[in-house]
Amino acid sequence: MNPKISDFGLAKIFSSNDIEGNTKRVAGTYGYMAPEYASEGLFSIKSDVFSFGVLILEIIHGKRNSSFHKNGDFFNLLGYAWKLWKEERWLEFIDESIVSESHASDTMRCINIALLCVQENAADRPTTISMVTMLSSESIALPEPKHPAYFHVRVTDEEPPSANDVTMSALQGR
């Protein structure tokens, strides 16, 4: 049995002998697709690794990547996880319902692995086999993750415009 989260038809294009491919028709959910697939239609054995990393972060944080908003700054979930990781405040990322001092090191390891999976450059992401090995063995040292994909932050003190700030003009013919 081979469990699948979803199938967007890539199996028809991507044969078992290939390690990468290209498609003109991009199908999937933005926020879960690897950036090289979403922007250029390129997919590889690392595309699913990216999606899995997003899912790990969603489970740990308890919020979806597609609808994430935090304190007036528009991070996506990956950017927020990365910010807290770099500031060594990763405990703040964990959903309150799963916070446990006894599992803190395991959770930190999962965040580290997830950030490795969502790195911008596909070549930097682990393979599925190495990811499973990292998850199942505490003795394997983990590399420090590099910058994740889709890291967009609105850095401004300015409030977004409201409907009251917008001037509406209507052009009418004579």
UniProtKB/TrEMBL annotation:
Alphabetical list of SUPFAM superfamilies matching this protein: Protein kinase-like (PK-like)
A single MF term (Gene Ontology): ATP binding
Gene3D superfamilies for the chain: Transferase(Phosphotransferase) domain 1
Segments forming a coiled coil: none
Pfam families attached to this UniProt entry: PK_Tyr_Ser-Thr
Residue ranges annotated for the Protein kinase domain, each copy included: 1-150
Domain of life: Eukaryota
PANTHER family for the chain: PROMASTIGOTE SURFACE ANTIGEN PROTEIN PSA, PROTEIN KINASE DOMAIN-CONTAINING PROTEIN
Name of the protein in question: Protein kinase domain-containing protein
Source organism (scientific name): Triticum urartu (Red wild einkorn)
